[in-house]
Specification:
rod-shaped; mainly alpha; 87% helix
Length: 208
């Protein structure tokens, strides 16, 4: 009796895990597509144009005008900090860092989900496989015919859960690394712009 209950439980649990993995895969792709459109819409793609504009800037007004030549969060962060007229280069850096911290919270949206899926989806698939194997052996215990062939057939079906788990995890890791790379690139651009502007203005010029 207990064997039949184990078989029934393992059957439904294994299929529930497969459904869960398919649902997770849907959200993984949806969140990644959302991030792609978000980065394309809000972050700078033409960095060379911005650097070229800054190369000709010699004062605060010209720098703000150069930052306004491109649309992107990175330029806006630096421009907003510079608009507060900091007295020193260190104060300017602190204002930029404060804005960058807030901006990164938006840039990193959904990335924790992608990282979690990439790390744990294989284990969820493995759990489904274990449950499928439990069902196979439970069925073998009460079967009067079929023997090893029934077990091997059940195990092959159970391994589908591991394959699906890996199929969900690998794209999630790729998506996660892409998002993290894009965020690092934008953060590095903000730091580069900050250093360049400090170099242009110098501490004594910032006080004017």
């Amino acid at each position: 009796m207990i064997t039949a209950q184990i078989s029934l439980f393992a059957f439904y649990a294994a299929r529930a895990i497969l459904y869960l993995l398919f649902i997770i895969s849907f959200f993984t792709v949806a969140f990644f597509i959302e991030r792609l459109f978000y980065y394309r819409r809000t972050l700078i793609r033409d960095e060379e144009k911005l650097h070229a504009a800054l190369a000709a800037a010699k004062d605060r007004t010209a720098i703000l005008a150069a930052l306004g030549t491109v649309r992107g969060e990175e330029a806006r962060i630096v421009a907003d900090a510079l608009s507060e007229a900091p007295d020193t280069g260190e104060a300017f850096r602190e204002l930029v860092n404060a804005r960058l911290i807030t901006a990164r919270q938006q840039w990193e949206r959904f990335t924790d989900f992608l990282g979690t899926v990439g790390s744990n989806a294989p284990f969820v698939g493995l759990l489904g496989t274990v449950l499928g194997i439990m069902k196979s052996f439970a069925d073998l215990a009460v079967a009067t015919k079929g023997g090893p062939q029934a077990v091997m057939s059940g195990i092959s079906e159970a391994l589908i859960a591991t394959a699906v788990g890996l199929g969900v995890a690998i794209p999630a890791i790729i998506f996660f690394n892409f998002c993290k790379g894009r965020i690092r690139r934008s953060a590095a651009l903000v730091e580069a712009l900050t250093a360049r502007i400090v170099g242009i203005l110098r501490p004594h010029t910032l006080e004017k």
